[in-house]
Specification:
By secondary structure, this protein is of the alpha+beta class. About 25% of the residues lie in helices and about 35% in strands. The chain contains 8 helices and 14 strands. It is globular.
Length: about 240
């Protein structure tokens, strides 16, 4: 990642919000204070989610932020000194544009930068607030990074990736401490794999519930990695 791509605003916001969350994960009001965009409301925040993704077509780099509140928030979003209280698009027609959406009990902010080269692997490696799986980068490219915290459900993170050609990912997963198990947690044996491939071919989808799991709760399911006991509920 070059110095220029490090300075892209979606990257800077991802890193700034991640650092704030790492400092004050148990106090959402402290996380919201002093961040850009600055989000204020008359109701307490109950959940914070944000992520960074790069789309293939046009190389769009997208930072997404959502704050949920315990009731109708009457929220305001201050971006670069301008206060927004209703849905709107900022910078339409330029290489970088933003949007603000006010829901019944939430606020969403979206920032898009056009024509960005591949950089998500480098962003992930720099994101010290995300669990690191260095060997994942040997067999996959990062597409999306997400993190969330909820006052009741706790914290979680999610990574989406795309496979690098036909590289064998299983040895890398095993070296990172993952084991292939069924939904009950029972190990999937080589005999199980051979039987399944004989029936459905080497590219057949795994049975429901089969995934790569680690003792700390991390799960690799298809092209998604989740961390946190309540990740599914936080990111639904």
């Amino acid at each position: 990642m070059t110095e220029g791509t490090k300075g892209l605003r979606p990257v800077r916001l991802w890193e700034a919000w991640g650092a704030a969350l790492a400092r004050s994960s148990e106090d959402l009001e402290a996380v919201l204070a002093g961040q850009s965009p600055q989000i204020t409301a008359q109701r307490p925040a109950t959940r914070l989610r944000f992520g960074l993704r790069r789309t293939g077509e046009g190389g769009q780099l997208v930072f997404e932020l959502r704050v949920d509140f315990g009731g109708a928030p009457r929220a305001e979003v201050n971006l670069d000194g301008t206060v927004h209280r209703q849905n709107g698009i900022i910078g339409e027609g330029s290489s970088e544009r933003a949007s603000v959406t006010f829901g019944g009990k939430y606020v969403e902010f979206l920032l898009v930068h056009e024509s960005v080269p591949r950089l998500m692997d480098a962003v992930y490696s720099r994101s010290t607030f995300m669990p690191q799986l260095p060997e994942l980068l040997d067999v996959a490219r990062i597409v999306t990074l997400e993190t969330a915290v909820d006052v009741t459900l706790g914290a979680a993170q999610r990574i989406y990736f795309e496979r690098r050609g036909h590289k064998d990912e299983e040895p890398s997963f095993e070296r990172m401490g993952f084991a292939l198990t069924d939904k009950r947690g029972a190990l999937v044996t080589p005999e199980d794999v051979a039987s399944w491939e004989a029936r459905y071919g080497p590219n057949g989808a795994w049975p429901s519930g089969v995934a790569w799991r680690r003792d700390d709760g991390a799960v690799i399911d298809g092209t998604e990695v989740t961390f946190g006991a309540n990740a599914r509920r936080l990111f639904r």
